[in-house]
């Protein structure tokens, strides 16, 4: 039989830490391997398969593909317009630019901020983002990603990008000036270990953006589209962002991203300022229309809030019983981090042996990103195995 793991190593550049599991198919909250072993999937493709493995997405893709898969952006296309219209009619957005990925959405936003700054003066091109943030791996996205370990081998990156301490108002004030054109922020740092923005910090950032006339870009690539129990995580606060960047679950598993801009920024790009061959693919947008319609027109967001509260309260109970293993429980909705210190790998390995797939981030944090339709029975199944794993570590 073909050895897929060996062939993968032989033919593909070694940039990913692959699992030994070979997945055959997905259904609801589960992934099945080639022996029909059934694994509870707490990754959801790192928050891409937010609706689980949903047949409705498959049908939307097939129906559009039967008409055409691609046209080029010289032609209008109903699914692309329909998805943009859903955003404009149901969110702060006034217009949309479609991309293929998260990092490309941030690249679009970098250019939008720079063009906005240029309108005022030549030197207004500085961009700010937080240390420990994650905004992607292309040159611009990586410049914003405030983690030296990702940047080190690729320096120098974009000029004019500066980093501040997340949730540290004094640090932000120090970095902001008349030359700032954009500030990129995650509402919950996902790759940074599930760390939530403070109310004080976000309101200060908005105040500074008015004082120094720069754009606030909220990177909702991981937090957006229902993950935290709201359509966007920023909705917890009483704010209107200038720009929101999206991707991950937007295309229901197909590559799709978006940059949403508020009223007043519709003219930030003109013809020829930006573009993409595949950005806003009709097939990906047809899947996106299905995904966004579910989020807007069903009770799913309320369910995510309810299940998130349930899961977080159960995890906090475990933290009280096993403080030696569980140092912290953080997050909102179904985006949850459990800081288990040095026990991360032990817990992950035990869980796989017991048919639960757990992801980790930031070296000590188990990151839970289950599909949004995960049931309470499935949550209890996870908690049972998770407690058994903790018991092993607690010895
Ligand atoms: C907050 C955030 N921004 C940007 C990105 C980059 O997205 P992509 O991998 O689609 O380029 C990610 C990916 O994990 C992310 O979590």
Walk me through this protein's architecture.
The strands form 4 sheets. The protein has a 7-stranded mixed beta sheet, sandwiched between helices. A 4-stranded mixed beta sheet has the order 1-2-3-15. It has helices at about 5-10, 45, 55-65, 80-90, 100-120, 140-145, 150, 170-175, 200-210, 280-295, 300-320, 345-355, 375-395; strands at about 25, 30-35, 40, 95-100, 125-130, 160-165, 180-185, 190, 195, 215-220, 245, 255-260, 330, 335-340, 355, 360, 365-370. The longest helix has 22 residues, at about 300-320. The two termini are about 40 Å apart. The mean pLDDT is about 95. The protein is an alpha/beta fold. The chain folds into 2 domains: about 5-55 and about 300-395, Alpha-Beta Complex (Aspartate Aminotransferase, domain 1), CATH 3.90.1150.10; about 55-295, Aspartate Aminotransferase, domain 2 (3-Layer(aba) Sandwich). Helices cover about 40% and strands about 20% of the residues. It binds pyridoxal-5'-phosphate.
């Amino acid at each position: 039989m073909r050895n897929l793991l060996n062939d993968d190593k032989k033919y593909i550049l070694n940039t990913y830490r692959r699992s030994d599991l070979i997945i055959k198919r997905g259904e609801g909250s589960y992934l099945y391997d080639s022996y029909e072993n059934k694994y509870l999937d707490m990754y959801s493709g790192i928050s891409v398969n937010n609706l689980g493995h949903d047949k409705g997405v498959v049908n939307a893709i097939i129906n559009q593909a039967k008409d055409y898969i691609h046209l080029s952006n010289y032609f209008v296309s109903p699914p692309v317009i329909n998805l943009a219209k859903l955003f404009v009619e149901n969110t702060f957005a006034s217009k949309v630019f479609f991309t293929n990925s998260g990092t490309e959405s941030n690249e679009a936003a970098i250019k939008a901020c720079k063009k906005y700054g240029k309108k005022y003066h030549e030197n207004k091109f500085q961009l700010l983002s937080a240390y420990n943030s994650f905004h992607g791996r292309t040159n611009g996205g990586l410049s914003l990603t405030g983690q030296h370990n990702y940047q080190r081998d690729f320096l120098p990156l974009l000029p004019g990008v500066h980093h501040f301490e997340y949730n540290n108002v004094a640090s932000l004030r120090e970095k902001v000036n008349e030359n700032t054109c954009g500030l990129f922020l995650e509402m919950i740092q996902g790759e940074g270990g599930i760390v939530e923005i403070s109310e004080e910090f976000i309101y200060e950032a908005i105040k500074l953006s008015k004082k120094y006339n720069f754009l606030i870009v909220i990177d909702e690539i991981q937090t957006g589209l229902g993950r935290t129990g709201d359509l966007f995580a920023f909705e917890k606060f009483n704010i209107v962002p200038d720009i929101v960047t999206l991707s991950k679950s937007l295309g229901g598993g197909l590559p799709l991203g978006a940059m949403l801009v508020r009223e007043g920024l519709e003219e930030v790009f003109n013809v020829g300022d930006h573009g993409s061959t595949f950005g806003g693919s009709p097939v990906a947008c047809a899947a996106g229309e299905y995904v966004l319609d579910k989020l807007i027109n069903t009770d799913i967001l309320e369910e995510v809030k309810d299940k998130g509260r349930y899961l977080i309260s159960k995890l906090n109970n475990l933290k009280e019983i096993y403080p030696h293993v569980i140092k912290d429980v953080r997050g909102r909705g179904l985006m949850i981090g459990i800081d288990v210190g040095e026990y991360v790998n032990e817990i992950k390995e035990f869980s796989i042996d017991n048919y639960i797939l757990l992801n980790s981030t930031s070296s000590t944090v188990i990151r839970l990103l289950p599909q949004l339709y995960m049931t309470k029975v499935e949550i209890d199944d996870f908690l049972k195995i998770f407690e058994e794993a903790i018991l092993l570590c607690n010895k």
